[in-house]
Inverse folding.
């Protein structure tokens, strides 16, 4: 009995991921990357060896973050194919992960947040308030229903990875959402929300402004006022506090205080 075509294997793998609760965004990204690998590798994806996969991943001088994304899709596919008995070799077992340099926090400036929540048209204004004052991701805004927001609590029922969390309702969030009708607050996808806000910001001369930076502003200022990394981790919906820490932008004064507070001995 012959082997299943690689495209069918990819479909089966993605179906398995879907049944495990993987997000649509991840499924779309994995399908794109695995299909591209199958098309561009010398003999396709299934018979590829480690060296071929490595050469394909590092082609055209891609950024380490992009290479890491490709590796994750390849590793997941070959591990699954071995587990279900479709393949009996894993060329990704010795495929080292690239080192992704840690960048500086991407945080909106106060004046940018003021512009986003006062000077943008609806629904961009609403999205900005939800990102800056509730820490919501675009995927969470796209899934948010009016009835899951009260004057006290924003209930995020399906966050990233379908994880739920509760965020206290800021007065600006309540003022922006209380008059909306029941049901979804938008019919746009996460990508459409992100791009629509980004393109409007660019037309207004704010080329680095984004929904993600508003979320960074939420995390940075929330941590500055609370000094509680665990509370911010839960508010942001992060699995690890290390992830939350990367969102926090420290001031020069905070960094200087580390040195100024050291005791001296005369």
């Amino acid at each position: 009995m012959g082997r299943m075509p690689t495209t069918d294997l990819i479909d089966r793998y993605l179906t398995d991921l879907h049944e495990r609760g993987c997000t649509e965004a991840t499924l779309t990204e994995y399908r794109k990357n695995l299909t591209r690998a199958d098309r561009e590798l010398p003999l396709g994806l299934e018979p590829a060896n480690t060296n071929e996969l490595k050469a394909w991943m590092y082609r055209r001088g891609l950024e380490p973050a992009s290479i890491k994304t490709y590796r994750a899709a390849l590793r997941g596919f070959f591990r699954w194919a071995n587990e279900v008995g479709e393949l009996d070799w894993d060329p990704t077992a010795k495929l080292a992960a690239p080192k992704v340099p840690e960048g500086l926090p991407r945080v909106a400036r106060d004046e940018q947040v003021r512009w986003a929540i006062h000077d943008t048209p609806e629904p961009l204004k609403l999205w900005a308030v939800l990102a800056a004052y509730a820490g919501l991701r675009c995927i969470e805004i796209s899934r948010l229903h009016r009835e899951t927001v009260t004057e006290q609590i924003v209930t995020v029922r399906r966050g990233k990875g379908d994880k739920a969390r509760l965020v206290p309702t800021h007065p600006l969030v309540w003022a922006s959402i209380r008059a909306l009708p029941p049901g979804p607050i938008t019919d746009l996808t996460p990508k459409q929300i992100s791009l629509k806000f980004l393109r409007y910001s660019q037309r207004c001369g704010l080329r680095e402004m984004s929904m993600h930076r508003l979320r960074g502003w939420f995390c940075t200022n929330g941590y500055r006022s609370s000094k509680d990394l665990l509370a911010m981790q839960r508010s942001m919906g992060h699995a690890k506090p290390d992830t939350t820490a990367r969102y926090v932008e420290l001031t020069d004064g905070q960094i200087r205080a580390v040195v100024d507070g050291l005791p001296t001995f005369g």
Observations:
- The chain has a mean pLDDT of 88.
- The two ends are 83 Å apart (CA to CA).
